[in-house]
Amino acid sequence: MKTIEWIGDVDGHLRLLDQTKLPTETTFLDCETPEDVYGAIKRLSVRGAPAIGVSAAYGIIVGLRDVIQTDRATFDQQFNKVCTYLADSRPTAVNLFWAIDRMQKLAQAESQLDPAAMRKRLLEEARTIDDEDREMCDAIGRFGAELIPQGAGVLTHCNTGALATAGMGTAFSVLYSAHKQGKNIHVYADETRPLLQGARLTAWELLQHGIPGTLICDSMAAWVMKEGKIQAVVTGADRIAANGDSANKIGTYSAAVLAKAHNIPFYIAAPSSTFDLSLATGEEIPIEQRDSAEITHGYGKQTAPLEIDTYNPAFDVTPAEYIAGLITERGVIQPVTTEEIAKVIAD
Questions:
Q1: Cys bridge to 327: 8, 11, 117, 144, which one at CB 3.0-4.6 A?
Q2: 189 assigned to a ligand binding site
Q3: Can you give the pTM of this predicted structure?
């Protein structure tokens, strides 16, 4: 089952697994327009920084269907309009902007192509981004598995598996690789309030791949650590600043603080495309604010008084000093400093 799939040739469309319906329903969305792709990203039908980037690249292709018979100037105008539109869907996930920027640079470099040829070339690039994401997941898994002790209990937060990428995932790929190596790990997935990505998605993926796991409430993490059940914490990231400060799903910072208090290594697994070296520290990372209904109406049922104020940031930022290592497709960055990150990522 593919989370992201391009159906057909250059006149085809993007098919996405609707993650808002999991684990009770398996439903696919056929995205024929940029509005379809934007909506899928915005409402979290597709989520996870790498998956958002791949989806946006394909979303550009569907947005160019009506301008292939025009001149190149008209094509470029529509191309830039679609890129700007899709870039507005989620402000924190840097892979979104990375993929769009890559497509824009290609269009600039191939300015001699007519609209039909340019659209075909852009589809080739989107497919390359898709393929590279799968290879990235495999490499992250190999490097990260080396950090996981035999028989370890591993806490993870949110969802970082095949549902969040085009491949086997980022942090989840580490868990999958360690499991395949026979390390006899046991994964503790916290539910990840308010949208329950850990409960709905990570727990589902653990069962799909036969990885031993236990679902816990977010508030149980400290006690599970104190009981000695956790030997490592591995999460993903949506944007990483030049100094290693890392934005990820709200609650990640809490897990990092708890891990440090219990002398447990906390790792972040993310591709090089998630690093934003234009930002010196995490203080510059924009944090998406989401609708209050996600807190007050959990999956259709009112769970809080309507009159109460809510605060619903989608992400928090974990300072670099809490991170034992950044697991990338190029290797593990340790210690997590501006200098070490630059050595691995700057090119």
A1: 144
A2: no
A3: 0.91
